[in-house]
Design brief:
2 domains, 14 helices, alpha+beta, elongated, 8-stranded mixed beta sheet
């Protein structure tokens, strides 16, 4: 039924949330229509033609008509207000026609569906208004037991038990299912929000933001920063359509995201074709340089394989330049809107310079990174001597290679 309900009052401009609300509404109203028919049949068999019988029958007919009318005019608010107004009028009418809470099996409990329905489908103020009306009707029933006939309808004891069973079980089952759905929806939305937050911020920073409402920038004395970019990007991008260019960058950067995640490397941001990430924060560790190098090799190898795929299809390939530098940074969030986790300091600028002086297919590292990994047997180094760096003078740099890759090449 829920799938069939998707055609109800459908409009091309409806948002996904509104489409779901309309589907849920017509599903609930269809259930209430069936309840109205069941009520009508039950009251007729027990009391014949009486006020409860007529009220239940008219309610069922009204619900069906309003589903059709609101669908034709594409106005689901018409269905909301008419049906949920009926769900408070009919139970109260039936209750007062019978004359006592006990004799009716507390049929007035069904009227609670009105403030509940208004809470789901409209503004809270409407729900509060109908909740007040519901409470007033309960109080009148308890205090005065009004009788529309002037005397209560006589209800056999067995029928009273049936009323209690049907009214309490059915009405509170509807309430429980509705509340369960709300709780489940809240949990799902909370998980989506948390996943989105963790996609923007490191977990520790996200937790601090949720608890305190803000975060403080932190200084890290030793981290490893990596910049990458595509060699000749500007020239190659002129020969590609905008759609293909963005698709290729997305494909490559998505692969980079998966790779650095394996090595506990934190992505900071992308700037055009540049990719910036850092290892050793927000949780400090002693393997940040090694972790970054392993991620760099895997990213480099991915781009080499990707280049072969593109060339086989006679398409324009990109080649990756990689630069890595180690040093202190400050990391944190600035601003209050569209914030992002970022890093600052001379280490970041130097890593950018080291990347710009690399060559495609090579991993270029600074002296400070070299000092941390030079004694490890996993890597081989090629000294580049002193290289002139803009704004910094001469710096020692090295091309580094994984021993396993070197053995494969030989």
């Amino acid at each position: 039924m829920f799938e069939l309900a998707k055609i109800y009052a459908h409009d091309e401009t409806d948002s996904p949330d509104l489409v779901f609300q309309k589907k849920l509404l017509v599903t609930i109203c269809s259930f209430l229509f069936l309840c109205g028919v069941a009520w009508w049949l039950m009251w007729y068999l027990i009391f014949g033609w009486s006020i409860p019988t007529v009220a239940a029958g008219l309610f069922g007919i009204m619900v069906l008509i309003m589903i059709i009318v609101s669908h034709i005019v594409k106005n689901h608010h018409l269905l909301i207000h008419s049906v949920f107004l009926g769900t408070i009028i009919v139970p109260v009418t039936c209750q007062w026609a019978i004359g006592s809470l006990h004799g009716s099996g507390m049929i007035i409990a069904w009227a609670f569906l009105t403030p509940l329905g208004m809470l789901i489908f409209t503004r809270a103020r409407y729900a509060v208004l109908y909740m007040v009306i519901f409470v007033i009707c309960i109080l009148i029933t308890v205090l005065y037991e009004p009788k529309l006939y002037g005397y209560p309808l006589e209800v056999p004891a067995g029928t009273i038990t049936l009323f209690y069973t049907m009214n309490l079980v059915t009405s509170y089952t509807v309430i429980f299912v509705t509340c369960a759905w709300f709780v489940d929806t809240i949990k799902v939305e909370k998980r989506i929000s948390e996943d989105l937050l963790l996609n923007i911020l490191p977990r520790d920073v996200a937790e601090e933001l949720k608890i305190k409402g803000d975060t403080r920038a932190k200084a890290f004395t030793m981290v490893t920063v990596m910049f990458t970019d595509f060699a000749g990007f500007t020239e190659k991008s002129k020969r590609m359509s905008a759609e293909l260019l963005v698709d290729e960058i997305h494909y490559c950067f998505s692969a980079f995201d998966n790779i650095i995640n394996k090595y506990r490397v934190e992505k900071i941001k992308t700037i055009g074709d540049a990719y910036l990430c850092v290892s050793g924060l927000p949780v400090s560790n002693y393997t940040h340089a090694v972790d970054m190098l392993r991620a760099a090799f895997e990213m480099r190898d991915f781009m080499i394989a990707r280049k072969k795929e593109k060339e086989a299809k006679v398409e324009i390939p990109f080649e990756l330049r990689i630069g890595i530098h180690t040093g202190p940074v400050v990391a944190g969030i600035v601003g209050i809107r569209k914030f992002q986790y970022d890093i600052w300091g001379d280490t970041v600028n130097t890593a950018n310079r080291v990347e710009s002086l690399s060559v495609p297919g090579k991993v270029n590292i600074s002296q400070s990174t070299y000092e941390l990994v030079k004694d490890l047997p996993d890597f081989e180094f090629e000294s580049r001597g002193k290289v002139e760096v803009k704004g910094k003078g001469e710096m020692e740099m090295y091309f580094v290679e994984s021993v396993n890759v070197s053995k494969k090449r030989t």
